[in-house]
Design a protein that fits this description.
- With 145 residues, the protein is α+β, with helices and mostly antiparallel strands.
- The chain has helices at residues 92-108, 114-144, and strands at residues 6-11, 16-22, 24-29, 32-36, 43-47, 50-56, 59-65, 68-73, 76-81, 84-86.
- The protein has a 5-stranded mixed sheet, with no helix packed on it. The protein has a 5-stranded antiparallel sheet with strand order 4-3-6-7-10, with helices on one face.
- Helix 1 runs antiparallel to helix 2.
- The radius of gyration is 16 Å and the shape is globular.
Amino acid sequence: MSESGLLVEVVSPDQLELSTTVDSIVIPASLGEMEVLPGHIPLLTMAKPGVLVVRRDGEDHHYAISAGFVEVLPDRVTVLVDAAEDEDEIDIERAKAALMRAEDRLASVETQDVEQRFAFESALERARARIAVWQHRQQHSDHDD
């Protein structure tokens, strides 16, 4: 990789989840998926629950993230989220249970309770992201065998 890479840091309240230099990063941002390359103009945006992809040396590595904030600078991207899970850390049974719980809660929430609806929708999206990251890892593992 060239020295013009992009430093990416993913930070949760508990720890520094990731700190590495990459070729690019794909972020689930509030207005849609956004790819950032070295030299990008500075910006601050919201991250939504979803799949974050870091690309390094032609390989993609996936993380399931919760909502948060993203700061982009020409040589660095900082992603501040409540939670981030590496593709190797995901427990699929736990993720499926979380998805079912979120779907049930969302179905039973009062329409006027906007705050609770938002929380349940975020939990649903995070569970979906965890499952998508796990499925990607499984497909990738199948091709390696």
